[in-house]
Amino acid sequence: MRTRILLTIVLSAVAFCSGCGGGGGGGGGGGGTVGGDTTPPTVIIDSPRAGDVCSGTVAVNVRAIDSTGVSRVEFYVNNALSATKTSSPYNFTWNTAALTNGASYTLSAKAYDAAGNQSPTSFLTVKVDNSVPDTTPPTVSINPLGAVVNGNVNVSATAGDNVGVAKVDFYVDGVLKGTDTTSPYEFSWDTTVNSEGAHQLTAKAYDAVNNSQTSAIINVMVDRTPPSVSITSPANNSTINNGNISVTADASDSSGVSKVEFYVDGVLTATDATAPYSFSWPPVAGQHSLTVKAYDVVNNSQLSSPVSVRVDTSLPSVSITSPANNSTANGTITVSANASDNNGINKVEFYVDDQLVSTDSSAPYSFNWNASSARGIHTLKAKAFDTANNSTTSSALTVMSSDTITVKAKSVAASQASIYGIDMIVRLPNGVSNNSAVTSGVASGISIAPDASGQDLSVSILSQNLIPFGIGEFMTLVNAIAPGTAVSPSDFSITSFNPFDGLGSVIGGVSAIIY
User: Fold this and answer.
1) What are the two backbone dihedrals, phi and then psi, of residue 179, each rounded to the nearest 5 degrees?
2) Which structural domains are found in the chain, ordered by start?
3) Quick check: 110 pLDDT over 70?
4) What's the pTM?
């Protein structure tokens, strides 16, 4: 009966081979047969491994297996027999000190059993390097990156080594996210898979012998929140005129606003990168929609609500309807104006001698003017503004401000007959003209001299029992116009005063006074 024996050989070497790889591969075999045994042994090189870099004296560990027993194991270097072992453990020492640094060598092993059967050859290739071991780690740093990031971000690192950099690993919050084996070392970080807020980036560089170094931590903020933005001027649904309009906007963001774009009817018209955000718009007549779009430092953007504005280039119409041009005014009078516009009147301003004296914002447009406050000739104007602030000034009209002089009869004694009428002449001073007179009674035959300076005013008053049997008085009001000249009652004189009774007889004891 045959017993299958597994022999494992392990040897501690005085030197080492670094690297990685599989065990030795199988090769061709052969040999004769003894006692009918035709099964060849199996041989495997356990160490070093294929691709290892070896130095000094290297332990070569071999496993050999056969059902009837292994008679010997042969060890070859570059197909040249280097050593033979006839008993387990099948380990060999290989001195590499005299070999060429950097050269590759093929190690192989063959096993034989007692029947002379030969195993397939197990072989592998290693590299010899007896230079001074490299213990210097690489240098590595992450290249400058914005403090705030969003979307896909290119993260790059600078790495160097005295022998050479094998790879650079990139980490986000300690989690490996990418590896690059060639310079420039970089990876694309998809920040959308990370939460908003603070994150830490590091890079770790390795050299060919696995020395490594980790970079300093880079702190970044992932920001996916867009800015807030709104138009502050003009107001929504406002009407504006055809002058250049200042369009202003307010924008803010926790990471900072990079720019604000201004759109008119959906067309990009201006861009402002510094607060306060504004642009001067030369509008055209009609209805328009204004919007602004704000961007933060990582290109998050937000579009404002639209603002609707109407551009009005039509001027309002305005005219003074009262008083009439070239009229005479005395005391407090009402100055009235008519104004209209296709979009509505905002206000009407009233001017006396080009000085603003009153404003009215609702129809009918008017104000009360004390014409006697300044004697003389005055010009009146009205200026209308529509809702877009377009304005029109009316034609000027002239008004003459006048004084009122009162002529009054003195008291009459009760013993005298009733006064039936009065004829009198009032002399106007030079520089004063007149065009009207009224009385307190029923007047007849009022005679007014020509409207000229220094003329006489003849007044005839007829009224039954104007002052009946008692003490009383009556008066005649004379409108005197004195442009630019102060006038007082003492400037006037009565040249004729004749009260009479019902029979036409002059009544004595009656006089008149001007005040």
Assistant:
1) -135, 140
2) 42-128 (2.60.40.10), 139-222 (2.60.40.10), 228-311 (2.60.40.10), 317-401 (2.60.40.10), 404-514 (2.60.40)
3) yes
4) 0.48
